[in-house]
Task: structure prediction
Amino acid sequence: MAVPVDSLTKQTPASSTLRFAFGNVLAFFILLLIGVLAFSIRLFSVIKYESVIHEFDPYFNYRVTQFLTKNGIYDFWNWFDDRTWYPLGRVIGGTVYPGLTLTAGTIWKVLQSLNIPLSVETVCVFTAPVFSAFAAWATYLLTKEVKGTGAGLTAAVLLAMVPSYISRSVAGSYDNEAVAIFALIFTFYLYIKTLNTGSLFYATLNSISYFYMVCSWGGYTFIINLIPMHVLLCIVTGRYSSRLYVAYAPLVVLGTLLAALVPVVGFNAVMTSEHFASFLVFIVIHVVALAYYIKGMLSPKMFKVAATLVVSVGLVVCCAVVAVLVAVVASSPTKGWSGRSLSLLDPTYASKYIPIIASVSEHQPPTWPSYFMDLNVLAFLVPAGIIACFTPLSDASSFVILYLVMSVYFSGVMVRLMLVLAPAACIMSGIALSEAFDVFTRSIKFYITNLTEYLQIDAGDSLPGNNVSPQNDVLKNEKKEDALKERPSRKNKKKEKEIIEKPSVKSKTEKRPLVLPVEASFFALFLTVLLGGFYVVHSVWAAAEAYSAPSIVLTSHSHDGLHVFDDFREAYAWLSHNTEVDDKVASWWDYGYQTTAMANRTVIVDNNTWNNTHIATVGTAMSSPEKAAWDIFNSLDVKYVLVVFGGLVGYPSDDINKFLWMVRIGGGVFPHIKEPDYLRDGQYRIDSQATPTMLNSLMYKLSYFRFVETDGGKGYDRVRRTEIGKKHFKLTHFEEVFTTHHWMVRIYKLKPQRNRIRGKTKKSKSKTSSTTPRSGAMKKNPWH
Result:
């Protein structure tokens, strides 16, 4: 049974000051160790493999950073890249979030000025681990503002090792999230700091931090919607204050002006629906501020009249603003929302209307095991943290609760946003663990204090047989005092009642700390430490095994040892050394960034996915028969076609598994491509039961050409676990020029037209010129 106590120890002012100073120094060194931990746990990819850029998008960011460091900031803003999206091209300076590039470029410049000769690639590889340490420190600052230093240190060490964040911040993961998560947490910290202090200085810093977040990642819209929701929540629940106004108003004004300076955002900061909530709440908070100001100047009767007038005017202004906003966005088919925002609000929207968004694996909803994989024990500690935030509920703790609720929803819609949930889960778990440790250690300290006092008393007592435990002695003394209180003398009955009743009333108003039995405290403390040990082991395993392997280099373990599959770099090196500089390479958009960065060749589409029609054209070519596909690629001046095939080694993320998305995206623009033509009874098959349309498609032929030669004529696909349907066939319009060692990447060249039908061309030309008018000999549109 828990025993409440009034106070455990009494400290002098000098001892408390010394303890406070020592605690600050200790917290500083712990934070240094947390930063070292956050950095070092993300180096497994470099230790086990090599210092190399990971995934797909980081290669584009690396290429842009190279251009920035070589040509300077002004050329970067005006860079028109003619090697992507041929023949359209892309204006890089106006279509990228420059925060990551400018950060890494600045770090490289500073290192060069200090005569530290690191390459741009090395800086890019280690940017994410460095900023993960910054994110851990920002988490400490944020949680400290909510629940104190102990909770802040616990949350920081949890974030340093959380697998969800490690998956996007290992060494080599040079993506926008590498710096954006730090900017997100630091912006929230400055908002809470301003909310607690009412300082205009911190409000200005908050706007600057928000500007850095806008520069870094498109997820800044999460901030500019979450903070207005919290402000509105505080107003509705009667928690409005001048500090709330100072924390919000400068952020909207200064933050929006700064955000509009980023070229990729521009006037979207005031013209798109993602930002309208902040403006509406901005009007509401001014109406409320005016009402509170008038209330302090007028009598209650006059205030009712003035409040009615202010609310009426405020409603009129809100209605006018809403009408203007509706008029602005009414012409847009998506009502001013971006496709990704609509996918978050309506999880079925992308699959219905924008298959290019639904085709991305990280845009799919997560499964339940992914929560336990990426959060582990934090998933069980979060509810306890929510309860702790309600005791007592403050503006800061209500913001953290709202942050958690919204991030849980968005992570359930899109697996990529598990990254946004990770800091909230670490903050809540840090608060829960800190509160639990506080109770356990307080109980143990109380036991040790009483034990010391008992031993001091016992040392002066020489009577034998006095072997009663200190806890029993304390309980007996309390029982004796209760008995004396329950049985007062009749003479002093009134005095005793007064003496007893006054402390009882006082005890109701004062909150006393909770002390558990010492056995329960030790056992609970042991279980908590054991739980933390499981979390550490799982996080280290995730960092070393699950998330350290770069997608550009693959490995597998078998009975005969470790196998390394370096086919991607092998293929890009072949393109770089065996093709002309101006040759165009067609592939699915997943490999566009890598082809441009590593092979230095012009691509038709890439991972930016800004032009759905262009991507649909490539998807249509891959879905069409060989002759129609040749016509499409030839019209785009394509020389080589690259396909990724995993049927030989069991690589599941190949183009055959992505083929249905090519069909869907192509069919969304060109209606003659129909998904049911590639399905047999609603099933996607590549065996003997596959449809003729599937077996004659270009993707099927380029993937399985000469595949039967690898296993003695069977043609067994290890990914689909079946024998292919069409085994022996020849290519008439394409020729194989290179296949990597493990058959993972295959490159084909378009045959020139004169080599295919040289003799027939002259005859057909003479016949058509003599029988048909010149104007009728028009070239057929290859896309129809």
Notes: The longest helix spans residues 418-459. The chain has 34 helices and 15 strands.
